[in-house]
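Attaching the record inline, Q. Sequence:
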Amino acid sequence: MVSDYELVEYADPEGRPFWELTTSPENSQFQKMMSDPKTKLIARKMINQISKIYDYGLKNVSGTSKLRCIDPKIGLYELKGFDGVNREMVYAICQGVDKIVLL
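Structure, as predicted:
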């Protein structure tokens, strides 16, 4: 089952990496968002939220309404506020911020 998933790497405007866990690397959900004119702005707002995690750290961003900690032990967070009611699950491995993975 694990072999069915792959990580696709992206970067924020500063060049800092984040990944998406997907079963279809050629046509992932995030790639669909970026290629669709109707959802491209939503994807860019999501990237801006990810940049803020890098800029301010998970602890500080978790103190806002934009990132909610679901399970700190495993690093599961809910990224929200990037476009209305849309939410994205994020896995963050961190001592600082090491990896951000969209689930």
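The two ends are 15 Å apart (CA to CA). The first strand starts at residue 6 and ends at 11.

More tomorrow.
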